[in-house]
């Protein structure tokens, strides 16, 4: 089995004339493939993966391949919004473990195309010298955990919309505007999530992360979600009006914490994020899905807006990826434990989907397992399963720790 990659990641906007795509690499083996995010006027149409056989791909070849894989996209309608955009606050929690990535993240945030916004960086270290970042407000939250940091950002934010991202992403210049326009078009939305794409696929670990299925179920159509019965969600495409009803616990399309925004008034009314969930606690994650699921359970409408794009820097080494995948497993079942303890009726909903979930763990053609190539390390799947088994106990430990911190 050959080791995958490296794969060049690029964004092409077909509203502009195509040019030759440079596929050279400054160091290491040459790119074997290209992963393209294809947009039209900033609106993503889909992704295309091509093989490379030279230092560049000619514009004519690109045009032919895009037409073959995406079809005729000339009829895609632009999104027009005439409503005034509400003031927005962008909150970035950080433990300063990735200072260079944080600075790149902040630089992109200060360049956003939005008429009225602020950027708040929440320093989530217990101690350390104060940090200064040009163009942003820095506040301190010594209580450990990304949820505590996000809640601190929410407490000081003055925007009607509060958007959250992470220190290992770079946002598209139109990211916040796309979020604001979606809120402006649909006044009853409580939350909007967006598209997360890779910033680079240079190493096998970064490619395996894409194959793991641990990220967002990447889609390119705008969606809305709302409750349909006690334990089900109605998913509606805003583009063609098609609808599908599925289990509340199939969370892949709802969104990720690196790209989510809320009406500040709704998030405050919900009490903010569960401080026993998330990075920096024994649970490692789950706080984002817990909030999105609880909003739906309370009868709020959510939206997925693919024009709100962030580029995520995946872990570069297999050791780091294994720790990350294990943490995602812990966070997922910790999240399920958290929502069930707050609302025991979830136990009945989870029981109804448990047989299907167990089958998906065994069947390689089911769900996210079907995305994995022959070279995908079996140890990553085992790490995720170990994490899932540890999640419930991790949540109880995290709750005790947070109670001691608050005492």
Features:
alpha/beta, Spore Coat Polysaccharide Biosynthesis Protein SpsA, Chain A, three-stranded mixed β-sheet, 16 strands
Whole-angstrom Rg: 21 Å
Query: How many DSSP H or I helices?
Result: 10
How many domains make up the 3D coordinates?
3
CATH fold group of the largest domain? Spore Coat Polysaccharide Biosynthesis Protein SpsA, Chain A
**Low-confidence segments, ≥5 residues, pLDDT <50?**
none
Beta-strand share of residues: 15-25%
Describe the biggest sheet? 11 strands, mixed
CATH class of the largest domain, named Alpha Beta
How would you characterize this protein structure?
The protein is an alpha/beta fold and 407 residues long. The protein has three domains: 7-70, no CATH class; 88-320, Spore Coat Polysaccharide Biosynthesis Protein SpsA, Chain A (Alpha-Beta Complex); 321-406, no CATH class. The protein contains ten helices and 16 strands. The chain has helices spanning 59-70, 99-110, 146-156, 175-185, 204-212, 264-269, 287-297, 318-342, 346-362, 378-406; strands spanning 7-13, 21-22, 33-40, 43-51, 56-57, 88-94, 117-123, 137-140, 161-164, 169-171, 189-198, 223-227, 232-237, 243-247, 260-263, 301-312. The strands form three sheets. Strands 6, 7, 8, 9, 10, 11, 12, 13, 14, 15 and 16 form an eleven-stranded mixed beta sheet that branches. Strands 1-3-4 form a three-stranded mixed beta sheet, with helices on one face. The model has no long low-confidence stretch (mean pLDDT 90).
């Amino acid at each position: 089995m050959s080791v995958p990659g490296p794969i060049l990641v690029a964004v092409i906007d077909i509203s502009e004339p195509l040019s030759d795509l440079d596929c050279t690499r400054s160091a290491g083996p040459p790119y074997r493939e290209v992963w393209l995010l294809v947009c039209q006027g900033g609106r993503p149409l889909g992704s295309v993966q091509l093989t490379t056989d030279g230092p560049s791909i000619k514009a004519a070849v690109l045009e032919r391949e895009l037409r073959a894989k995406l079809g005729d996209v000339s009829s895609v309608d632009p999104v027009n919004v005439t409503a005034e955009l509400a003031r927005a606050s962008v909150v970035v929690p950080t433990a300063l473990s990735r200072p260079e990535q944080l600075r790149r993240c902040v630089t992109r945030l200060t360049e956003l195309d939005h008429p009225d916004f602020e950027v708040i960086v929440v320093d989530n270290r217990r101690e350390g010298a104060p940090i200064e970042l040009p163009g942003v407000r820095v506040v301190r939250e010594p209580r450990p955990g990304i949820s505590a940091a996000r809640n601190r950002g929410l407490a000081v934010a003055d925007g009607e919309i509060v958007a959250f991202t992470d220190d290992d992403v770079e946002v598209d210049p139109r990211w916040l505007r796309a979020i604001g326009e979606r809120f402006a078009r649909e006044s009853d939305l409580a939350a909007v999530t967006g598209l997360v794409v890779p910033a680079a696929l240079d190493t096998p670990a970064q490619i395996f992360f894409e194959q793991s299925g641990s990220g967002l179920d990447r889609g390119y159509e705008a969606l809305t979600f709302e409750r349909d019965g006690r334990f089900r969600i109605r998913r509606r495409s805003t583009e063609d009006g098609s609808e599908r009803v599925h289990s509340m616990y199939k969370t892949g399309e709802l969104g990720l914490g690196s790209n989510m925004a809320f009406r500040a008034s709704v998030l405050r009314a919900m009490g903010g994020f569960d401080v026993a969930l998330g990075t920096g606690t024994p649970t490692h994650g789950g706080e984002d899905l817990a909030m999105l699921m609880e909003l739906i359970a309370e009868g709020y409408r959510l939206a997925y807006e693919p024009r709100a794009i962030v580029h995520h820097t995946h872990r570069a080494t297999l050791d780091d990826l294994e720790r990350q995948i294990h943490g995602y497993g812990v966070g997922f079942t910790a999240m399920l434990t958290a929502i069930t303890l707050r609302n025991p009726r979830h136990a009945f909903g989870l029981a109804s989907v448990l047989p299907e979930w167990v089958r998906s763990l065994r069947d390689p053609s089911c769900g996210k397992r079907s995305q994995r190539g022959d070279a995908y390390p079996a140890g990553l799947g085992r790490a995720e399963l170990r994490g899932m088994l540890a999640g419930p106990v991790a949540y109880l430990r995290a709750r005790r720790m947070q109670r001691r911190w608050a005492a």
